[in-house]
Amino acid sequence: MSLLGYVSGQIEREERLLEQLSKATFVLQSDSLGLAERVGVTAEDVSRSRDQVSAFAARLVAALARNDVDPAVAPIVKRILQSPMPVSDWSQDLRALARAAGTPGPFPHQVLATLSSIVRFIDVGFTEELYRLYGRR
Amino acid sequence: MDRLPFLRAKAADGELHLKWLKAELSSLRARAPSRLQLFDRLDAEVRGAEARLSDLKVVISAAHPTLMDRGVQCAHLLDAILNKVSVTYVGALRKEGDSERRMRGLVLSASRSSGMSWIQDIVVRLDGTHAVFATFPEIPLLVAPPRHIASLYDMPGLYHELGHTAFVKFPAIGDCMRAAVAEYFDAQRRLGGPLTPGQRATREERLSAAEQYWTEWQLAELFCDIFATYACGPAHYASFVELGLRMPYDPFEVVGDPHPPDAARERACYESLSLTHRGEELVNTVRKAWKAHEGKSGPNHQYMLRCGDELLAKLVGVAISSLEEKIPTLRRYQAALPSVDDVERLTPTGNLEDVLNQSATILFLAAEQYGKWEGAALDWCARLARET
Amino acid sequence: MKRQFARTRQIDRPRLSGREAPRPRLGATLFRIDGVNDPTFDFDVLRVREAMPCDSAKAERLQRMADQLWRRELKSPVYPSSRFDFPGFIVPAGTVNRDRVIELPGVPDRTYHVEVTDQAYTVRADKVSGSERELVCRMIERAFTNTLLKLRHELWKGDLWTLFFRLAAENEDVATDIVRAFRGLRFGVAIVNGELALAADARTRYIGRKSLAQATFEERQRILQGHLSPALRPDERAQFVRDNGTKKIACRYVGDVQQTAGEYTFDRDGQPTTVYTYYRQRYPEVRVDLSDPLVFVQDHRGGVPLAVPANRLFPIFTTDYEAIRRCSVAPQLSPDERLRHIASFLPYLRDTAFGDTKLTPRLEPLVGNRKVFCPPSLEFGNKVIVSPFDGASRPDVSASPFDRGVLAFGGVKVHAVESQPPFHNEPLPDAVLLFPGSLSRGEREAFATILEQGVQKLTGQRLRIMRQVEYATGPGEREGTALLREAEQVLRAAKDSLLIPILWDGFRPSVHGAFKEAVSPAHSQCVEESNARTIATGRDPARLAGLVRNLALGLTTEVGVIPWVLAESLYHDVHIGIDVLHGRIGYHALYGLGGRYVTSESGTALHGGRAHEHIKAPEMRRRVEQILRRIAAADRAPDSLVGHRDGRWWESDRRGFREAIDALQAEGVLPAGFRYALVEVRKNHLPVRLFTERIVNGRAVRANPLPGSYLLLDGERAILASTGRPGAWDQHRGRTAGTLLLEVVEAVGAFNLEEIVEDAYRLTHLNWSAPDIPIAHPVTIRWTDHYLRQTLRGEAVRTQRWALEQDEGAS
């Protein structure tokens, strides 16, 4: 019996989450930088991305406030807790992110930076799992 | 922007890799045109990889520092898909020979007879210890030892691996088990009697640590033991105990991997047997041996906090209820085991679970007849594989 | 007129008619007082002239002032009163001259002036409660005291105004008894359902035959260490009696006088007088010589030291002195003997002058229908329920099968504990055994094996003794330093270990508490070396099984195993027990079905470096809020609560409680209709015993009360007997069960006193550490008290001696 069963099953879920949020971040960043047309981002893409980001930020805020954590966000919560910034600051920034996503108008730079940090956490976790599964030199 | 050359290189290589992959898949599909679901799925993954490559190219052309992270993430996503498809599936499919196909046929027949309705196809590699890639739960890649070509020994372990596909396919099962853990520890917190505030605080720390032990990973592994026993009955129980008895370490210790302690797994397997099966001679014989093994060490405090009998029974109950609710097609193995009174006359019959249970009965209760038995059983299994 | 009453005179019992009462009845050592024609009592009101700080210590301050007024200034009962909007006291009318102003020293250099106001008022005995009730009772007690004081050729007063002993010892002629036993009467006055009654109980005082002057050096070191030790403060030392013939005065040794009776002089009425001369004049019948050595004594805490002849000092011993166990006069009495003894004193009180009337207590005790609670059903593991009776067939409380079932319930519990899994089987931590070298290897191994078997039998778990560590013993190790050092090392290496120290027989008593305190919060279960040896050698087979079982229970419940819980609901959702000891406060709250869940808190009542009995309102509020929030979050919001306090609910305690409830209601944590009652639970209270009376062959026979018997004194107070062994304790040299007094001092919302008392009784059935031995207190008090005493055992031992000397002979 090996470890592959669980990890291989989980990585698919993480892959979907990473793609969704990474894409949403790209869309919102492009829109904020005025590059939307150049990179082929439509208004519909922006609206959909705002919704996804808003929902995810709210989910993370709830997870940080509770003790029992949804396994889908558990790795992100773990990295947040290990980061130098206090949890209260993270909660504040995530709430600001959720608010900005629900408010028309450009995203403030600081809010996008928060979103990027979260997506980077997801990416780091995903890549670790990926190479645990497939090995590396 | 320093990462831009890396991203460009990734895009160039990705282009080539995808081209090769599409050609490989096309060739493999031609060799097994009936395996539509498998190749359709792999083609869909390739399309996903193409989309990621396209996104990567957009980032490269935008060449803006803020967007570089997205490029890196696209590269990782591309890698993931390519690994999944080429390293895992294509690698296995290229090496697929008669033995692998026979094994595939046998496992598919078992999945159908036991009601694993979500499984559409299986890819098999006969070059390692039992493992599964459950990335696509409907089309798992099973790894098994080459010995399975000529032996039924340890074969019930495959059911544990198939359990991972169920855990991925039906995430609500994990949710229920997680809720059961929380409920159990909440109830434990209220108990303990008239402890001093300091003692209660220490107890709270210990209980929290014990609760945190049960991550989704541990729950998944325990679920797979439950699933395997549910589907394969005493054969899986005996197979697990036999595996555990081979291990030199204390069965109550966590030995550094995400599997729960062997004692907890044995308990879960035992609790997953039907009441009738618990009374079978095979089960009693095997259990006695296990209890003797446990008796050499005995449960330690950490084990009892983490893996109390009440918690394990609760998890088994919740897992089985979830199986019955979420996978109503899944059949619980409940057939009576053969008697060994007239063992020479016994012939293999039924589906793979039946054969494995018959085998386990003869192996542990009339081992001297096992050699003769296994030959006939393997022939029967070959027939089952052909009929799929 | 000199009254002559034979000490053991048989009082004529009433010959009852041939129609005998078929039911057992409940009696109490309460005797109606005849002669009270006018039930009204007049009070004067005193006030403190100066403004006083209005803080949490106010009530305690006023109580101290009341005590000073009572004992020093007025020699008459004084109670603080909250009836007025000024700091005031109530006294019997006419106690203080209207012109008199009393000066009382305050802290640090304040003087308060107390004067009589014109706020006199009258109360009725059948309608009083609280301090007014107490004042009425004290007024009548004083009258009885005055009557007995006149009998100085027959009785001598103990250290309480309501405690008198016969002048002649019961065993005067028994030369083999090295202590003399004096039988006496402790009395009080109570108002029972509006009527005045004398509460009375027997007391026995044991005084050494040898005086201090006669004691050898070895006796001073060994037997009189508690009386003389310089390591103890004078008020912590055991008492002597200063035997001046007809006058015997309790006192405590302060120090030696380096002069003799003929040399030392003191000022008497302005004239220097020697002790010798004083005795010749004052107590001519007492033999004192010029050369007699003197010692200094104090008659009360803080009193002026007096020089007295050492040959007039005789040590008072408490019942833990081994010689008393061998004495021909047993300290305990069966109910029948007790009542006869009390009855022999009652005639002394006949025609006691009180105002214009004469009071006489009746000779027959109060007897009425028996009220007794049924023991609760208990739940063990696997939901096994154990009851004293089958649910469908509970006999009538007056029928013999009922008594049999109740008395057999202890045995039923023992059987269940040994045959059923515990309600909650907490995992046992790995254990470390610490042992003295005086225990041989064979004894130690046998003890460990037997203990493991005992634990296995109760829980099914294996007790893993991972290490055995020897600690040093010897003359320099009486304080247990080596033991503590080893324990600390063990915990440094493995902080979750369960420590099992076998306490060397040579340790001081304080080592037990010091150990628990030092290793806390780690779990530990101490065993006396002598008990470990008894277990290991099986020397006392009759005791062995119970000893092992109760030790295993102690150990397993210490780490959190719950052998059983109550299977039935209590009437109230939450019970909180609160106790204070040496400035430390313990709170234990029980909630859930039958109080099966427990949560606790601890706090401090140290203010300004001094330990107080009252709890500051903010401290009480915080703890009660924390507890109730925790309960509401873990279980559900409770609807009702009963608070048990071992002793008095001070005003600041009550205020803190009220504020906590109000705050939680405002937040919505508690419902708007939340009810609570605050109950004082006292083991030391009125000298009242309960007993069962049956008519046998036309004769009233008195026996121990059935555990669970209770008597309602009025709407707020009840007496409960939760312990006792009818039958076994009713023989000659038997004993009588003690009682608790429960008094509801504050209630918000509707409450039924019987339900409050029944809940308290049911909560005595969580006697996990010894299921065959009923306990007196509900576990709300018992566990809290145990927690405080375990960690303050040294001070507690000294305090306990003082408390015993105040009220000797209980049970």
Q: Which structural traits does this protein have?
A:
A: Four Helix Bundle (Hemerythrin (Met), subunit A), 6 helices, 79% helix, globular, B: mainly alpha, 3 strands
Strand content of chain A: under 5%
Shape of chain B: flat
Instruction: Return the domain count of chain A.
Output: 1
Adjacency order of strands in the biggest sheet of chain B: 1-3-2
What average pLDDT do the residues of chain A reach? 87
Give a quick account of the main beta sheet of chain B: strands, pairing sense, barrel closure: 3 strands, mixed
* Succession of helices and strands of chain A: HHHHHH
CATH class term of chain A: Mainly Alpha
Tally of strands of chain B: 3
| Beta strands of chain A, count | 0
Number of helices of chain A: 6
Which structural class is indicated by helix and strand composition of chain A? mainly alpha
- Under CATH, the topology of chain A can be stated as Four Helix Bundle (Hemerythrin (Met), subunit A)
Provide the gyration radius of chain B in Å: 24 Å
Helix content of chain A: over 70%
Given as residue ranges, the uncertain stretches of chain A (5+ residues, pLDDT < 50) are none
Question: Terminal Cα separation of chain B, in Å?
Answer: 55 Å
Shape of chain A: globular
User: How many separate structural domains of chain B?
Assistant: 2
Order of helices and strands of chain B: HHHHEEEHHHHHHHHHHHH
3D structure, described in words:
The complex is a heterotrimer of chains A (about 140), B (about 400) and C (about 800). Chain A has about 140 residues and is mostly helical. Chain A contains 6 helices and no strands. Chain A has one domain: Four Helix Bundle (Hemerythrin (Met), subunit A), CATH 1.20.120. The longest helix of chain A has 30 residues. Chain B is mainly α and about 400 residues long. Chain B folds into 2 domains: about 90 residues; about 290 residues, no CATH class. Chain B contains 16 helices and 3 strands. In chain B, a hairpin with a 7-residue loop joins β2 and β3. Chain B is flat, with a radius of gyration of 24 Å. The model of chain B has no long low-confidence stretch (mean pLDDT about 95). With about 800 residues, chain C is α+β, with helices and mostly antiparallel strands. Among the domains of chain C are: about 80 residues; about 40 residues, no CATH class; about 130 residues, Response regulator (Rossmann fold, 3-Layer(aba) Sandwich), CATH 3.40.50.2300; about 190 residues, Ribonuclease H-like superfamily/Ribonuclease H (Nucleotidyltransferase, domain 5, 2-Layer Sandwich). Chain C contains 18 helices and 41 strands. Chains B and C meet through α6, α7 and α13 of B and β32 and α17 of C.
